[in-house]
Every structure is written in C-alpha cells, then in structure tokens.
Amino acid sequence: MSSGYKTEIKDINIISGNIVAPEGFFATGSHIGIKRKRKDLTLIKSEVSATAAGVFTQNTIQAPPVLWNKSHINNKIRGIVINSGIANSCTGKTGVKNAELMAEIYAECINADKHEILVSSTGVIGVQLPMEILSQGIKNTFQQLDRSEKSAQKAAKGILTTDTFIKEIAVELEIGGKTVKIGAIAKGSGMIHPNMATMLAFVTTDADIEQNLLQKALKETVDDSYNMISVDGDTSTNDMVIVLANGMAGNPAINTENEDYQKFRKALEYVNMYMAKQIIHDGEGVTKFLEVEVRGAATKDDAKKIAKSIINSNLFKTAMFGADANWGRIVCAAGYSGVKFDFTKSCVEFYNEIGRIKVLTEGEPVLFNEAEALKVLKEREIKVLLKLQEGDASATAWGCDLSYDYVKINGEYRT
Amino acid sequence: MSSGYKTEIKDINIISGNIVAPEGFFATGSHIGIKRKRKDLTLIKSEVSATAAGVFTQNTIQAPPVLWNKSHINNKIRGIVINSGIANSCTGKTGVKNAELMAEIYAECINADKHEILVSSTGVIGVQLPMEILSQGIKNTFQQLDRSEKSAQKAAKGILTTDTFIKEIAVELEIGGKTVKIGAIAKGSGMIHPNMATMLAFVTTDADIEQNLLQKALKETVDDSYNMISVDGDTSTNDMVIVLANGMAGNPAINTENEDYQKFRKALEYVNMYMAKQIIHDGEGVTKFLEVEVRGAATKDDAKKIAKSIINSNLFKTAMFGADANWGRIVCAAGYSGVKFDFTKSCVEFYNEIGRIKVLTEGEPVLFNEAEALKVLKEREIKVLLKLQEGDASATAWGCDLSYDYVKINGEYRT
Which of A224, A301, B14, B245 is deepest in the core (most CB within 10 A)? Predict the structure, then answer.
C-alpha cells in the first residue's frame, strides 16, 4: 500500500482537496446499491459552464459512456456522473439509452441540460445498469455536493473498483498574477475482477484556457504519463481522462502557446504523471514498481515502443518479482518491439537507491556481482536503463511485476 | 502431462522413429556437460546432401546460430548440431565465432564442410558456450549416430530445456507411387527459466522437392501452426524451424505446385500443427489448452490479429485458469487488437465435448446458465468461437492459461 511519492517541483505547490480545490467545483460520492458495500457513485459539478477536453480508449469496442462523451466533449460542461460496479460496456442498445438517461437524470438534479453532462461507468462488462437504483441514487446524492475535503475524498472513493487506496492530488501555481489550481482523482488500471476494467481520471481546474489548447495539453501529457504505464497490457473499453476548466481563477485567458500555457501544461503533466504512477503502485498483486527508460533511440516513437515492449513482457515482470537480474529478457523484449537497432551498441543497467548494476555494455555481457544485484533487485522500486546509439530520443515507461496475487485476483473471481 | 492428440487424417499414416524415419537420416543425443544432468546435445545427419529450408525469429536481436543458418540455408546441407543449456545469444563477437566453430567441429566429424552444417542453441542468454566441453562432446557423440528409434528419442531429448516431455512425430504418405516420410522433433516455447528461450523444430524428409517449394510449404504451414501459438507472447532470439529434404524416397521430383506438392504440403502442415499443439500442452504451468477461432473477419490477417490478441491476453488466460466465463475479456482483447469490426454483429461462445455456452449474440449479452458454463470451463480443453460479420476469413490460435506455476517457474529461478 504505497501512498506514492509526491516530489516537490519548482513553482508548483501541492495542496489538499483534490477535484474541489479549484474554484467553483463541487463533488461527492456515495454507496447507492450497485455494489454490495463500497461506494459506487461519484458526482462532479462546476458552478459555471466549463470548457472540457478528453482522451478516450483506443479499443475498437467503446462503451456507451465513451461514445456519449466523445460526442459531447466540445460542449460547455456542467458536471460529470460516474458509477462503479458495472461498466455499461457490451450492453447493446439498452446500454446506449442508459448512458443518455444517466446524463439526463443528473442534469435535472443540477438544473443543467443533458448535453452539458458527461458520464462514466466502470465495472463488470456485459451487465445492464440497474436504472432504478441509479436514478434514485443520483437524486439522493446530489444534495451532498459541496466543496469540503471530505466530500472530495468520497468522490475519489466512488470511482474505485479493485483499487486498494484512493488516488488524488491537487496543485496550485501562479499564472498572470492569479492562483490557478488543478485537482484530480483517478482509479486503477489492471483490467481486474472480471472486467473491472478501466483506467479513469477526472481533472478539474479553474484555469481560463481555450478548448483546443486544453485538449492539446491533455493529449500530450496523457501520452507521456497514463499511456506509458502498464499493469497487464489489456486496454479496456471504458478508459478515459477528462479535464474540466471553468475559468474561475480569473487568469488572463490562455489562447496561444505562450509562457502561461507552458506553465499550465507543466502543472497538468505533473498531475497526470503523479496519478499514473499511483495507479501502478496500486496494480493488482504488485510487489515491485518498475521504471524502464530507453535512451539514444532514433525517434521518440521508437523509444516508447521499446520501453513499452519491455514493461509489458511477462518474462521481465516475473523475473523482477523473483528479484532475478535476467537482463536477457530485457534485450529480448526490446528486440521483438518491432524497432530496429544495433544490438552491438546497446548497454543495460539496473539501478535504484541501493546501487547500480551494469549487465550489458556495447552488446557484450558484463560479469556482475550476483549478491550485489540481488540487493538492488530486492527493493520495491527498480529502474532499468537501456542505452542505444541510434539517436537522441528517449522515453520512460512504468509498470509492475507479475506475482502470484495477480493470477489469484484475476483467476479466482466468481469461482 | 498430455501426450497430445494424434488425429487420424486421410492418406497420411503416423509412424515411429521421428527424424530418422525418413530414409538416409541419422540422429542421436547425449549429455556432454553443459547442463548438470540432462541431455544437452543433439546431432542430425543426412547420408546425402539435403535441400534445406528454414524460418527464423522475427526478433531484431538474432542469436549467432540464427545468423549462421540464415546465410547457409540455401546451401546443400549434411547435418545439424544443436546444444541446449546455453543459447549463445547476446554473446558478442565471441558468440559469432563459436557458432561457426560448432559447425566446423561437427563437419569434421562427418566428413563434411562447415558450410554444409546448420547450428542451433537454446538456453540461457548472455553466457558463452564452453567450447572445450562442446568440442569434446560432439566428437564423442557423433559415433553414436544411427537410424534406431532409441537414438531418435535421444535426439528429441537433447534439445529440451524446461520441457517436461519430448515432442516427436513421423508420418508417411504416398507420392507418385513412392512412400515419402516426414519426421520432426521440437522443443517448447514459454521463454522460460531465465531465458531458456526458444521454440525449436527440426524436420527431416526423404521427399525430393525443389528448394523454393520446400521453403514456400514450410513458411505457409509455419504461419498457420507455430506462428499461431502463444505461451507468453515473448519471442525469443533463437527461434527456428528447419526442414531438410534429401530426396531419398525416389519420388518424381516436386518442382511445380502440382498435386504431389499439395500432398506434401498437407503432410508437412499436419506435422507442424501437431508439434505446435504439443508445445502448448507442455507450456509452463499450463492447466488449460485453449483454442480461439475467429470467423467472419474481413481478411485472414484481421482474423489472425484478433485470435492472437485474445490468446495473448493475461486477463483471458487467468479467467480460463479460474474457469470463469468472462467473455467481456474476450471481446475487449478483440477490440484492442487493432482490427476494426462492428461489435453489434459479434457472437461469442465457449465449447468443448461437455457442451456449448453462447454468451454474446449480435452484440447483446446472453443470459447463460453459470453452472453449465462452469462444467464446460472446468475441462482441460476449452474452445472459444468469435463470429464476426465482416467477411469470410477465419483463423485459429492456440494457447494456454496463466497459472500460479507460470509465475513460480519464471520468477523463482536463481533466487
């Protein structure tokens, strides 16, 4: 149970309150009866209409909430309603109607139009939402919407499935003499408990920023954070990251890629990176937090492909679970990534706070001290550096080991 | 420990003797001291020069034996020397020299030229071959080369690493009034015990067939057999399938794609398919044999991509380990295969000899009997059928579940 490492970063302060930290945002979460006991509903509201941006799963099969949001993301948005326990995925025409109905019910509660509401669901695939329970639940819960830290934490809980801890953060920074805040909640990947699929993240900010720039900043920072983590390589039908920006910070509107934009983008990147790592720390059955950095690739795309191929390799993951310095599995996974590179110029090392073990240099194996390697690999956090000599591009991916518990959690459900 | 299912097939008889069943082939295997106890050397010899064909790993990193064989596969070949225990992969310039030296040592023993010898290694990556031991071992072992079934079984053993049983088959068929034989030995995939990588298969035949047709028949049948199986999705640096055809059956030479060619191709396909399935049955920690068939895809390539995406999904594999009818994981993996298809026209069913469970029809979930589903899924062999409505193409992939033992075998080595 790691709480993650909040590293201090220049000009950005970490604050409390997650998604209600930014001005004008309200949230809450509750148990309405979709799950047996744990919270299963989260509501987010902005006092004023907010600009929205989103990135969605690349899976060919996209759940009704994803489809709804994709066709509403360019609208001004007043709120988001999220349920956990049932994913409303692979649910046919009924599922499509239910996603719309969810928006409609919540819209009525907060005096908005259904086209100003985004929706999200996570949980079992192929089961219909219990609309009576959901409708009653939303109506009972919206009255608790407020700006307290306690409500924010309820909101962080309402979106969880097999996650073992809530994932939240909020930061503040100064833009044009005004304090701008960004808050976020997320739930874990690890397509879990039968199709307790889905990586979800909801970000709020009171920054005043144009929609196309908000979308650009989101897309780019998601590519380097959420899109570089892997628990098991499975991509769900419901994945989404949504950001709402309501402009209430009163900063000079960001409408070009100026210094203010770069500041905002950097803070958003920090938030996304932090949350992505939190998700890995809470991956199913995780005993190791792994970082794979590839340097010296010909292109950034090459570097990403190689890093992801390594972080996804079951053989690499099991080796790390066993604290085994099997560097052969690393170069092997790099080799089948689809990227061409000169192996005879490659170097590999393992490292962390305990030490640094070089295992391959210029394509030749290095005789290393097994006892020292074991010390390094026994740690929870292990970094792998693969240096190529193809160019200047680099990329980093994060993942976890593959343990008995992963098999247990994913194999024993329902039986 | 399954011995696999040899299904009878028209015009093809299963016989004994594996790679020495075809006329003019000699083989043996022995323990020479690379491994602690088990056999670690296999020798194959053809009485006369044989036409060769091969398919090799697509990994960017190709071990020295792979490189040697690729540049010699068009030569007339007299023999193959294979060691297990050390893969001679990622071994720098020394490794390249050692692969050539291996060929040279064996060539001298059987009065051939080193350029008439193919080589293969499987085992740990990044460790140099002990050339003294190997040289002495080859010289001591070649004298035992003969055409007995006992020697053939020794040859089948010499190439194994973590495999738990030998994989062998031989068949005969009639071509142009002559009896033609095909024999094969193979070793398992499951990139295993630290990089006890590698899927290897060696096929011998006394058929008289032109090299380009031999290569074509091999490539096509490997694509539908070995290339459609998956234990863990990891592709090794040493994978290869080699076939030697020495023409001693005396059949009318096959030099066009006539009826004789089709007969030969069909028998070779049978041999490759049988061996590929044997490898799955012996996958690491396997408790289930899984078959995924995709029908109604737009193209064969689409069908293959989807079938492989499903068979490689850790979530699908763990669900099968747990006998859980999680069809959501199947459609989800199909969805992220990269192939576009209309999910609202998809059907999914599980079946085997015990029964047939429809779980999805035209994109709508089917209410199925959980108890009946459990009965079907408790069996060792489970088939999944995914029907699309995009076209007429189909493909089948084979794989295994992901069990505690997979993690144990791959995580606990050396520690």
Answer: B245
Question: Closest to A318 (Cβ–Cβ): which among B233, B324, B410?
Answer: B410
Kindly report which listed range (A315-319, A356-360, A375-379) carries the lowest average pLDDT score: A315-319
Residue B173, min C-alpha distance to chain A (Å): 38
Pick the CATH number of A289-411 from 3.40.50.720, 3.10.20.340, 3.10.180.10, 3.20.20.70: 3.10.20.340
pLDDT tens column, A30-65: 999 999 999 999 999 999 999 999 999 888 888 999
Q: What does the pLDDT look like over B71-116, one tens digit per residue?
A: 999 999 999 999 999 999 989 899 999 999 999 999 999 999 999 9
> Tokens in use for A100?
């719309």
Please report which confidence band the pLDDT of residue B411 belongs to, taking 50, 70 and 90 as the band edges.
Answer: low
Distance from first CA to last CA of chain B, Å, rounded? 27
B7 burial type by CB count under 10 A (0-12 exposed, 13-18 middle, 19+ buried): exposed
How far does the CA of residue B98 sit from the closest CA of chain A (Å)? 14
List chain A residues with CB under 8 Å of B364: 92
Residue A229, classed as helix, strand or coil, is strand
Give the list of residues 6+ apart from residue B152 with CB closer than 8 angstroms, or none: B17, B18, B19, B20, B21, B27, B168, B183, B185
ipTM value for the complex: 0.72
Q: Where are the domains of chain A?
A: 13-281, 289-411
* Interchain CB contact of A331 with B (< 8 Å): yes
Superfamily holding A13-281 = L-amino peptidase D-ALA esterase/amidase (3.60.70.12)
How near does any CA of chain A get to the CA of B177, in Å? 45
N residues, chain B: 415
Under 8 Å between Cβ of A218 and A257: no
Q: Which of A234, A359, A365 is closest, CB to CB, to B332?
A: A234
Q: Which residue of B has its CA nearest to A408?
A: B404
Cβ contact A331:A348 at 8 Å: yes
Which residues have CB under 8 Å from A386's CB, separation 6+? Answer: A292, A293, A294, A295, A306, A307, A310, A330, A331, A334, A346, A347, A348
Q: What is the pTM of this model?
A: 0.80
The answer to whether the B13-281 and B289-411 domains have the same CATH topology is no
- Structure tokens given for B269: 């396909």
| Distance from the Cα of residue A275 to its chain's centroid | 6
**How far apart are the C-alpha atoms of A172 and A188, rounded to whole Å?**
24
